[in-house]
Amino acid sequence: MRVLTARDDALLVELDDLDQAVALYESLLADPVRGVGTPVPGARTLLVPFRPSAVSARDLAAELRARPLERGARTTARTVEVPVLYDGADLTEVAALLGWSTDELVRRHTGATWTVGFVGFAPGFAYLTSDDPELVVPRRSSPRTRVPAGSVALAGPYSGVYPRESPGGWQLLGRTDAPVWDVTRERPALLLPGDTVRFTSTAALSRAPVSAPPPAAVPPTSPAPPSPTPPPTAGVDHSSCCHDDPVPGSNRCGQQLGLEVVSGGAQALVQDLGRGGAEGAGVSASGALDRPSLRAANRAVGNPTDAAVIESVGGLRLRARGPQVLAVTGAAGDLVVRPGGDGPGARRDGTDGPGARRPGNGAHGVRRPRPGEPFALDDGDELRLAAPARGVRAYVAVRGGIDVPPVLGSRATDVLAGLGPDPLGSGDVLPVGAPDRGLPAAAPPPPAPAPAPGPTPDELPAPGETTELTIVLGPRDDWFDTATIDLLTGQDWLVTPRSNRIGLRLDGEALTRLPERRDTELPSEGCVTGAIQVPPDGLPVLFLADHPLTGGYPVIAAVAADQVPLAGQLPAGARVRLTIRNTPGGTP
């Protein structure tokens, strides 16, 4: 066993094989360590996150080294039967690679006992290993851009079932109608680490494979893809409005109370502090990229700090349905509130008529709220967020919180996994929950809270400026020589426009592996948010909140936990200088 630093709040345990990794994973589930989060199994590693305030890295490493590495009985492990129609596009080619007939390949695939080692790549995608050492084939030399949901495949020593349509480079043997991923179930993933799987041959499927709605390709500046969560309530035309008294739960037009999205701008997503505890099913936490700003916005309006808010990249326009109290933090840009139908001269399209009130001409004139401070909206008032000059993401909290249905315990949108609410667009209406602690929805704004830790809006990164981020070397810094480590920290990296919520793509002088590592393939292993992965082209990718749970490229370092929110506010065109907090090659 080798215990490596993955970040200042995570260790990566390197083991001899997958069996030992699963044994340690099961041991931590059966007998948890105080302060340790949900571990993430890899091909022969286990990522172990922890709270340094509860347990030190040194004490945790000692506890891990003392754990037995033999698998015992686990009450939550199951045997799952997966029916397969063996008609895959690569069935004949794989049989030829192995020197077998297709019938022999099917016999060996169904006759083997398969065990779930770990879940990664996508939610519900289980990596299965077998007791047949000859069932090993290479990946396809040219990956497919589209692999159908339910495809049963082989690659290396693994077999797997694609939970939804996605790109992929595995060899396709057949397909199944087994629902391997369903967020409506108590156990969304059909296959979890430690489970035993038996494939059975069938002449026909009982129904077509059902795919979890796939995330579309996500361009760096485009909104998040669709998800299995029902979208927010669609808006209705209210170019003309009634003037009767409102019914409970509606405004004076009889419309649902809440916030109507007039425009989602460049990107607007519902976010909270993320979903934890589902890592074993291949689901990362996701959540707000700048958590201090989310907490500060919620505190300003009297919400619990984990309430759902809107994360905006700029250009967001919201209209109040009923009186609301809001606050905006993070990369807020200019905030403008225009009066609704009651404001003299105000038009329903948000423009000013001849008699519109201007700032200083009355309580119902155009207002410019200050970031971080609560402000009230009357029914029909519109809030506009300009694109920020500094930073990337603003956080809009409303008293009562955004009350969309949670998925796996969170209302956050995960753009890679396709979980959570759809990206917000024109006409969507976001329901608002009841105010916390009995605060009425339209109460006078409470006093502004104390400043939250972290950068103020004026201190956020800007294009052309250099921001310093502290990093923790590891776990794979030993794949690189001292000169490459010096190159990592000795240059200003440029944040490219290909960056998004999945990760920041950095440009600069490429990093190179040690000569003996250049052709080495790293077995998939867990990655933390803030991990700096080095792909074959040598240009680092800094993982953000929606990163894949496991990765197959070496992670040279990770941004320190307290610096991750700042990384999430780096705009394209900004420059980054990385400084080391720990010693190269250090282990707990």
Describe the protein's architecture and organization.
The chain has 588 residues and is α+β, with helices and mostly antiparallel strands. The protein folds into four domains: 2-66, Gyrase A, domain 2 (2-Layer Sandwich), CATH 3.30.1360.40; 79-201, Beta Barrel (Cyclophilin), CATH 2.40.100.10; 223-236 and 249-456, no CATH class; 466-580, Cyclophilin-like (Cyclophilin), CATH 2.40.100. The chain is built from seven helices and 33 strands. A hairpin with a 6-residue loop joins β6 (114-119) and β7. The longest helix has 13 residues, at 18-30.
What are the salient characteristics of this protein?
7-stranded mixed β-sheet, Gyrase A, domain 2, 588 residues, 7-stranded mixed beta barrel, hydrolase activity, 7 helices
How do you describe this structure in short?
This protein has 588 residues and is of the alpha+beta class.
List the domain count as a whole number. Answer: 4
What's the Cα radius of gyration? 26 Å
- Main structural class: alpha+beta
Count of helix runs: 7
Note the overall shape: globular
Low-confidence stretches: 212-231, 234-248, 342-363
Strand order of the largest sheet: 5-13-6-7-10-9-12
- Separation, N- and C-terminal Cα atoms: 13 Å
Give the overall average pLDDT.
86
Largest sheet: 7 strands, mixed
Protein name: KipI family sensor histidine kinase inhibitor
Pfam families: CT_A_B, CT_C_D
InterPro entries: CT_A_B, CT_C_D, Cyclophilin-like_dom_sf, PxpC
Keywords: ATP-binding, Hydrolase, Nucleotide-binding
